[in-house]
Design goal:
Layout (H helix, E strand, L loop, with lengths): L6 E5 L8 E3 L15 E6 L2 E11 L14 E2 L8 H14 L3 H6 L4 H4 L9 E6 L1 H5 L9 H12 L6 H7 L4 H9 L3 E6 L3 E2 L13 H11 L6 E7 L5 H13 L4 E5 L6 H12 L3 E4 L5 H13 L4 E4 L11 E7 L16 H12 L2 E6 L4 H8 L4 E5 L10 E6 L11 H12 L3 E5 L8 E4 L16 E3 L4 E3 L6 E3 L12 E4 L3 H11 L5 E4 L9 H10 L5 E4 L12 E6 L3 H5 L5 H13 L10 E6 L5 H25 L6 E9 L4 H14 L6 E14 L2 E10 L2 H15 L9 E6 L6
Parallel strand pairs: 9-14, 9-15, 10-12, 10-13, 11-12, 13-14, 16-26, 17-24, 17-25, 23-24, 25-26
Antiparallel strand pairs: 1-2, 1-4, 3-4, 3-5, 6-7, 8-11, 18-22, 19-20, 20-21, 27-29, 27-30, 28-29
Helix pairs in contact: 1-12, 5-7, 8-9, 9-10, 18-19, 20-21
Length: 737
């Protein structure tokens, strides 16, 4: 040990399981240093931005060997003490590299060392002349006419994202409008979404909604987790709004987590209309500057409401009052690679540390949350009825056995679609598989279009004439002939949303068909544009993936067709049936949300499957009871704790060799109630050119597993074989891939 000195323990943005010691930079006032500040540090041959975790009097190595930090980047801590406390817990619980953990709490610009200052983005706005000019006067310049018309429809201001969504080649046209004095540019800070001009009162709460609001609002100064289970259309958002209003009146902030970017626009609109306060928005669809601005406004308390996706759980709050997690069951709340954490569970721990309430809302509770409610760790509130006059949709099974169905649309479903088109009602068809067809095969020799970097087939995207791997993103042109036998009879096998879209256009030529999936919504702002079309009744048939399954309100949709639920019934993943049930209920909930009754048709080859029948006859609560009983009988989570050690390498043998060594280390540390399974190859052994394997550890009690992990991670990181692979710990894994 070295003599006493001021030593800075710094989390470095690198995948290493330790912090690093540095000396303070020259001319630094020691008493000005506070954990949570950023430092620029030398690291090997690079200069990195690290986070000061603690200040110590001793170092783990000789003081003379320590390097000095280059500079302190902040005058005060960017990560306040309460957030550092949360990150300390996250680091210990998920056993992740500290640098990855602490930097996850910072926006990208702050990770790069940029100053913590809000700056504006460029916007285009009409001049007074532009507001008064009739677009028809520009008919000899059709592009200028179209752009001026677009700007007049968005008279407040438009940013680059909106313009890109409107037209990919707008820049030259915009310059012409600026020359004519019709448009001018402004710099605006728009990450804080301003409220609507006129406040709109909400509907009167029903008995269940009022009981939930009263219960949660009464616990404003204490930690209490609530599981708010409300059937689809029961008005959970109204409950959120009324609760948040009570916290705003006490000058406290609300943090609202949503699983998908697509859910934020409609939430924002309702929040603006009802709450009349600035709302900070945080998700990956923002520019780096927009995200930084929103983050700073949340941390200073200028935004009473913060809405964000998964990583927003680490946003600093000046006056935290309540945390709400919408669609708490959704797997999108779990980070599935890199720094693996579950935002729902982190939110509960953050609320506990802050001593504030946390609400987990959903129509289909995760078995983990139901288990906690039955252990009296969560208070279980229910909203059993739909709000207003809306009624529950009628669910029917369509038996596909022996039914001719070339385009995956059964005669029964086709007839019901025709009825809705006649009545000018909307139809939603759900298929959780994008692209034209999952597989391209050779009719002569049986060759299949496989990904060269993964153990999976490539998906045909016909409009772009591409084969694309949905696991690693690899693309290649569609071959003209079979690469194996040179035959030209290449055929598609299976159906995707793109193919269903084409089939619908042929079968119902009078219908306006719109496809919403990741491929059709790649351009920024395109999803909201499409949703606006649906709400404006400019769409008759909506085809989509699980992007449409949650949160969206389509009042004129009276028929939902679920084209294929069999994958969830037949999967080897023990969580597959739970996700199947959640997805079915969520998709079905899009039907009949207004005065018109809704109907749901579920196409399947297994109409008598017991889990499906339980769900249809008795609803999700009965299904969840049966599934939870099954988990208890088999000792699977949430009735036990589980961790995966994953490893991957370009060398096929190295992951298994490392995991075998890691297993031997674990066997010296385990007790009688801890079980080790594997190592085995991952279900998809090869992905993105790397071979993958995994080792499963399961314990009856969570503390037993955590005790093992605390010692085990330290031992396996020193193994020689660990240097030959990329490995990671996944605590509470949500999928086995």
């Amino acid at each position: 040990m070295s003599k006493k000195a001021t030593v800075l323990q710094v989390a470095v943005p690198a995948p290493v399981y330790r912090t690093f010691d540095y000396l303070p930079p020259g001319n630094c006032k020691i008493d000005s240093l506070v954990p949570g500040m950023r430092l620029r540090i030398p690291f090997g041959r690079s200069r990195l931005v690290g986070i000061l975790v603690s200040i110590e009097n001793n170092s783990r190595i000789e003081t003379a060997r320590l390097k000095k930090a280059i500079e302190i980047l902040d005058k005060e801590a960017l990560l306040p003490a309460d957030l550092l406390q949360l990150l300390h817990w996250v680091r210990r619980y998920y056993h992740c590299p500290p640098g990855e953990c602490y930097t996850a709490a910072l926006p990208v610009l702050l990770r790069k060392g940029e100053p913590a200052i809000a700056q504006g983005d460029k916007y285009w706005v009409l001049t007074p002349a532009g507001l008064e000019t009739d677009a028809e006067t520009l008919k000899r310049a059709p592009r200028q006419q179209a752009l001026l018309d677009f700007l007049q429809d968005h008279s407040d201001a438009v940013n680059r994202a909106l313009l890109d969504a409107h037209s990919p080649n707008w820049q030259n046209t915009m310059r012409e409008l600026i020359k004519k004095g019709l448009v001018q540019t402004e710099e605006r800070i728009r990450s804080i979404d301003t409220p609507a001009n006129k406040k709109i009162s909400g509907p009167k709460l029903n008995e269940g909604q009022q009981a939930a609001v009263s219960s949660i609002s009464s616990q404003h100064a204490h930690f209490q987790p609530y599981l708010l289970e409300g059937v689809t259309g029961s008005g959970k958002t109204e409950v959120y709004l009324n609760i948040i209003q009570s916290f705003i009146e006490r000058d406290e902030q609300a943090l609202v987590l949503v699983p998908e970017i697509g859910l934020t626009p409609q939430l924002l609109e309702r929040f603006h209309q009802r709450l009349q306060v600035p709302v900070a928005v945080l998700h990956s669809g923002l520019s780096d500057q927009e995200r930084l601005t929103a983050w700073l406004m949340a941390s200073t308390g200028q935004a009473p409401v913060v809405i964000g996706t998964r990583s927003a759980v680490f946003t600093p709050l000046k006056n935290p009052g309540i945390i709400i997690v919408d669609e708490e069951h959704d797997i999108s709340l779990k980070q599935l690679d890199g720094f693996r954490y579950h935002a729902r569970d982190v939110a509960v721990m953050r609320a506990r540390q802050l001593d504030i309430p946390v609400v987990l809302g959903t129509a289909t509770p995760s078995l983990e949350s139901l288990y906690n409610a039955r252990q009296n760790k969560y208070q279980h509130l229910t909203l059993p009825e739909r709000a207003g006059t809306a009624t529950h949709p009628e669910l029917k099974v369509v038996d596909l056995r022996r039914v001719p169905m070339p385009d995956r649309i059964s005669p029964t479903l086709a007839a019901e679609i025709e009825k809705r088109l006649t009545r000018r009602e909307q139809v939603l068809l759900f298929l959780n598989r994008r692209g034209f067809a999952p597989t391209l095969i050779c009719h002569d020799c049986g060759w299949t279009a496989d990904c060269e970097r993964c153990n999976t087939h490539m998906t045909l995207h016909k409009r772009k004439n591409k084969l694309r791997c949905h696991h690693c993103g690899a693309e290649r042109p569609v071959p003209i002939q079979c690469p194996s036998c040179q035959a030209e009879d290449l055929q598609t096998l299976g159906q995707g949303t793109e193919r269903i879209e084409n089939a619908l256009a042929e079968r119902f030529p009078q219908a306006r068909v719109l496809r919403i999936d990741r491929d059709s919504t790649r351009r920024k702002g395109s999803l909201q544009t499409m949703l606006d079309q649906v709400h404006a009744d400019e769409v008759d048939i909506l085809v989509g993936t699980q992007m449409l399954a949650k949160g969206h309100d389509f009042p004129n949709v009276t028929l939902v067709g679920i084209l294929d639920m069999d994958q969830g019934l037949m999967s080897a993943d023990f969580r597959a049936s739970e996700r199947m049930a959640q997805l079915l209920v969520q998709v079905a909930g899009r039907a009949g949300r207004a005065e018109k009754p809704g109907e749901v048709l579920i196409q399947t080859h297994y109409p008598d499957h017991p889990l499906l029948q339980t769900l249809l006859k008795h609803g999700y609560p009965a299904f969840a009871d049966a599934a939870l009983k099954e988990r208890q009988d088999t000792g699977l989570p949430p009735c036990s704790a589980m961790t995966l050690l994953r490893a991957e390498s370009v060398n096929e043998k190295e992951p298994m060799a490392f995991l075998s060594e890691a297993r031997r280390e674990a066997e010296t540390l385990t007790g009688k109630d801890v079980f080790i399974l594997g190592p085995v190859p991952a279900p998809m052994e090869k992905r993105a050119g790397r071979f993958r394997a995994q080792l499963l550890i399961q314990a009856e009690q969570r503390h037993q597993l955590q005790q093992l992990l605390a010692n085990w991670v330290n031992s396996i990181k020193s193994l020689k074989s660990a240097r030959k692979v990329r490995w990671s710990i996944d605590v509470d894994p949500m999928e086995m891939y």
